[in-house]
## 1
Amino acid sequence: MTLQYYDLLQDKTEKRLQYLASYIAPELTIGELQNFIDDIANKPKDSKKTNKSNKLDAFKEIGDDFETHADFSKLTEQQLKNIYQVFISREINDRFAVKWRFYQYFKYIRDIIIESIKINQSDDATKIIDFIIETEDNKYIFVLCFDVLDIQKFNQGIEGCNEFVKANKIKPDRIFFVTNKTFRDIPIENAVIIDNEELIAELWLEINDESSPFNNEDMLIISNSDLKIAGFNFTSMEDLLDYVYEFSDGGQISILKKADFFSEVEREEFEEELIWKGIMIKNDIS
């Protein structure tokens, strides 16, 4: 069972949607929620090119207000619907949705220490780069998001990165092509040329793990912490473990689930089932 598409929900009340949104993990900040709403408003209505997106001032830093907590109670019905369809049911797979799900995932990735993330909020329909990520070691990552990645879009992405580098004097150390679906002819194993230097582009593909021991409607409970999170935040067990590693204190960890907790089926009690047990060592050994 998976969370229903919005149109099939029996309960579309603001209270119900706000409740589900409160279990989005990592939790959205005030600024991130406002950026999400602004990004919806700035979604291009046509294919007119404005060249705004080729300038660094089209990018805005996001996520630097990490101590704040988003308030969903003031959202409109349409805004709550957008939150639900992008993060919870994941029924929308356009570039906008892929972009925001990537951002949510990237906030708890373990092997990259983030210094800052800048989001492109230009309304230019032909914009290429969606995020510029600066790492702790002063490296830059360009992130390009797509609904479906084909060879034409791939080549346009490389061309757009070169144009941006030329205009802004910022050179990427890595390039991520993030997509919901892709064709097999993407030459991802071949080096690309950015500002006369070779670089290997990296493909990030949204994948749902059908063998996962939990589904979208399950409540996930981390035994030695206050973490209670919804299954809809994760596409695989690996994603879940990355999140637990980042946001728990480590040590002996048990992960339990309450099956179908977020479904519309009413129950008086939900049984807890152990789905993972182990030890997470968070000591920095150098």
## 2
Amino acid sequence: MRVVFPRDASGSFSGLWICLSKVIPNKRFIFLFLLLLTGCATFTPLTAPTAVKTIIIEPLTDLDNAAALDFHVMGRVSVHNAQHSFSGNVHWQHTEPEDHIFLLAPLGQTIAEIRKNKDRASLVTAKQEEFYARNVENLTAEMLGWRLPLDGLQYWILGAHSPASTAKIELDSDDRIVAIHQDGWQILYIRYFAAQSEEDIIRPRIIELRYDDLKIRMVVDNWI
């Protein structure tokens, strides 16, 4: 028997989250249940839409009021470079003062817990060993074997460029971002969530980051 779990029009489990929250008061158990569902999914080969226009945006001189919006996402991540590969789940909560990220194996075991604030970044391994660095990109490169560009990704995941450096942005015929080129990274926007109304903010569903031989694909299953 094949069981089909309800998804909304964008393909996410947000409707299932709402239903489960009514009968399961502990959100941690709901989160782990949804991780099991998403962890069994596979990544389908997809390509970004065709770009028809390119614009260049210069960095802002005043970054005091340019912080990325707060968000909380659950999804999946696939990482490949010449030396390492990883596929699993990601749980990321971003606020202006701090980022808190869990990288998990498909069945929910924590591979790494990452925290970042304005002073430093920390990473706790599955063996409960804790390491520190000035930024997440250097820390993950040393401890995981691949770089997680968190300073830029906090904007890219929202479908925006980082205001801290020059960005080359490619747009489709609807003026929706197809790709961002920034700080040596290429960010491809492969799929967006479907808007439920004209007032909805259209958020990225699948993005792919490339830097030299490193490829990171992120699939957002839920914006919570």
